[in-house]
Amino acid sequence: MRLFKKYAPAITVIWALIILVISVIPGADLPSLSIWEPDKVMHALVYGVLTILLFFTLQNFYPLRAKNNFLAVGLCILYGFIIELIQLFLPTRSFDMLDALANSTGCVLAMAVILVISGKNKA
Fold it and tell me: Labelling 37: which of 6, 46, 51, 99 has CA 20 to 30 A away?
């Protein structure tokens, strides 16, 4: 686990860059991922992973900060929305509010899993 903590920031940045690159590739050039259908589930999973990675990265820098969960979710939702906005300006891509919603759902669900697993769910 200590090795993961050491590399969490780099893994988080790499994952975010992978999301960005895949999001700006022309849609026709993307391979069909029938295993991941429907598309919205894939969006949720990808952004859920990003949220988990960012949460652990924040924990490395601010280990006892209770707001790390909200910050991770908020930043990942914002990142997903910005990528959707970038797609407005790409001729082969388009803004899709349902994709942004799927991204956000993945972020929130990932954090819920983290809270339940860590025993910090005080609800």
Answer: 51
Look-up: residue for tokens 């991922």? 33
Which contacts of 112-117 are long-range, i.e. CB under 8 A and separated by 24 or more positions? 113/48, 113/52, 114/52, 114/55, 114/69, 115/69
pLDDT at 77: 97
Domain membership of residue 123 (yes or no) is no
- Is pTM beyond 0.85? Reply is no
Scanning the chain, the segments in alpha helix (DSSP H) are 2-24, 39-61, 68-87, 97-118
Amino acid at 6: K
- Separation between Cα atoms, residue 113 and residue 91, nearest integer Å: 37
